[in-house]
Amino acid sequence: MALPEQYLVTTKNLDSFLNSLLNAKAPTKFTNKFLEQLEFKSTNDRLLIGLLKSLGFIDSNGIPQDRYFKFLDQSQSKHVIGEAIKEAYTDLFSVNVKANKMSTADVKNKMKTLTQGSKSDAVLNWMSNTFTALCKYADFSNQSSKEAVAVKHQEHFTEEIPLRMNIK
After folding, report:
1. InterPro entries, alphabetically (predicted)?
2. Has residue 1 been placed in a domain?
3. How many domains is the chain built from?
4. pLDDT tens over the chain, length 168 residues
């Protein structure tokens, strides 16, 4: 299932956390110590590491991945987050292609269905709040580079063929 089970108990620090990543040197390994160096010292802030893993920013060992480095380009960071969200939450976007515009309550209901009711109400609240907070930060207006290339390729090779019908 493509629906991350990582969530934040509180999303109040999410924007400032993501912005602090943009202004910090990328670590060789993302650890609790690095998180504390960024001034995120609460035990709740440790959940940010799991979220980065689910978004493909770091691997299971905390090593930054290509997506993390692309995110550091401030002209692309919000688009990178948007692509990461679409990839991580593919099941939710399969249910509604504009899941990023859904209300938190609607997201929670869809997640309840997708998890087949296996999550508590509190966990579903945290999962849906995390998703909507990520979406508020992200920019979904830009097509991914693969999609843009495919559209450009298709436009380049689209040819109009005139049809003539001779009816006698």
Report:
1. DUF5343
2. no
3. 1
4. 578 989 999 999 999 999 999 999 999 999 999 999 999 999 999 999 999 999 999 999 999 999 999 999 999 999 999 999 999 999 999 999 999 999 999 999 999 999 998 999 999 999 999 999 999 999 998 655 554 544 444 444 445 555 566 666
Is 44 a domain residue? yes
pTM above 0.90, yes or no: no
Q: Which two tokens stand for residue 57?
A: 């920013």
Please give the Cα distance from 27 to 143 (Å, whole number): 29
4 lies in some domain: no
Residue 90 lies in a domain: yes
Angle ∠(116,117,119) on CA atoms, nearest 5:
115
Range of the domain at 107: 14-143
